Amino acid sequence: MAKAIRIHETGGPEVLRLESIEVGEPGPGQARVRHTYIAVNFIDIYFRTGRYPLPLPNGIGSDAVGVVEAVGPGVKDIRVGDRVGYLIGPQGAYAQVRVMPAEVLIPLPDGVSDRTAATLMMKGMTAQYLFRQVYPLKGGETILYHAAAGGVGLIACQWARALGVTMIGTVSTDEKAAIAKANGCTHTIVTSRENIAQRVREITDGKGVPVVYDSVGKDTLEASLDSLQPRGVLVSNGTSSGPVVIDTMTLAVKGSIWVTRPAMVHYITPRSHMLAMADELFGHVEAGRIVSEPKQSFALADAGEAHRALESRATTGATVLVP
Question: Could you list the residue range(s) of the whole structural domain that residue 39 is in?
Fold first, then answer.
């Protein structure tokens, strides 16, 4: 038996229950992984609250790292004892041990610790597909990135610096502004006292930016649109403040704006592509261009407290659970 967080109904953090589960042996094409660290992501809150529906009861959690304990028939490139991580597959990462499809497991290089990797699976790979695939940055651009001191944001700050990109990042406090700048964010906008679009225009000499990466959603939509150059791109990659609703005529009036709502699954498959993405990410980490460690850690049993901290914006960087 192993311990895992499960939900029987949607709602607040109190619906996260620590239960005993039967794990069993891996079947064909599967591997059993004992977790060392489990990542907490804002998408977990969407599943917990029902914004993203799940059949109930169910496990929760998208990504984790750990050690392979057993493999099933037909598994060729994953072996017992391998250190691995994952970010796609069935919900249920909030667990001590689980059986996973071997095809979603990513081997971890020796130069990347489990603790570091736990901050990179979803968050680092998100930065990769946003900056290298959704709107590929070549260097020299000036961009607007919302929530620059968040888990993905701090990795994005460093990746932008490595690419030679001028990053304007929004944050909620002066303390978070200092953290974002320390990680490579060129300019910060403190949203509690500064007008986002106005500051972007000031920083860019009135031009605006070619792309905005917006994981906040409803609360920042107008500011994002008003910060873009004509024919600029709004990458709407999250809705932490609420869903985004756009009148297409508004896009024309604002300058023939393009909008995309990317989903990781469409950028990370097939497996060969996922491994190539991970290689690029880990290469930056091993070269010291990206440094990432959890800023907050909670015991698996305290997953509800981790959710409360994340929802209240009391966190910076990555948050992990320790099973």
Answer: 2-119+293-322
